[in-house]
Design a protein that fits this description.
With about 200 residues, this protein is of the alpha/beta class. It has 7 helices and 10 strands. Strand 1, helix 1 and strand 2 form a beta-alpha-beta unit. The longest helix is centred in the middle third of the chain and has 20 residues.
Amino acid sequence: MSKQSVSIIEFSELYNILYEMKHSFAFDIYNYTNFNDFISKTESNVANNSLIILQQKDHLLFQNLKITESTTLILDKLPVKLEKLIDLINSNLIKNKYEFQSKLNINQYVINLNSRIISNNVNKLRLTEKEIKIILFLNKENKEQTITTLQKLVWGYSSDLDTHTVETHIYRLRKKIKDNFNDENFIINSNNGYTIQKLI
């Protein structure tokens, strides 16, 4: 996994202080003179497990869907003790790394495994634990999965579980996705079973 980073925007004094100590940190430090500079250089590859430090909130940043308030640290109350600041940075990076690792991107969707929410740029939908398991299983397999396979590997085979139960769960999941995202092709149904077709 790539090293986490801390991006400091319009705060050169702080950057200079931290830069002197950079060898003692487990993260990389970057300095940006303004918001536009930061966005133009990082918009395509900002990782949610990194941190942005600035002195005031700027809505330009949050227009980028990969940048959220949880990935920023606003230092609007100065001065702050250096030890406390480094503790804040480290605790935010730990939290963001945990959140980043709990998210799965499938096609145009992001699935948060902790909150069990699937979302795209417009809508979000809460799923059940079983629905998450279905999606994770279908996503990891590269071919269509039969009802019998799903019954054994997702539910754990039980003699009192009939195939109709599995079909009903998948039907309801597909309907929820269609109703919320207007997407009938996230989970594909064919004569051979079910699959998630990966978009290229």
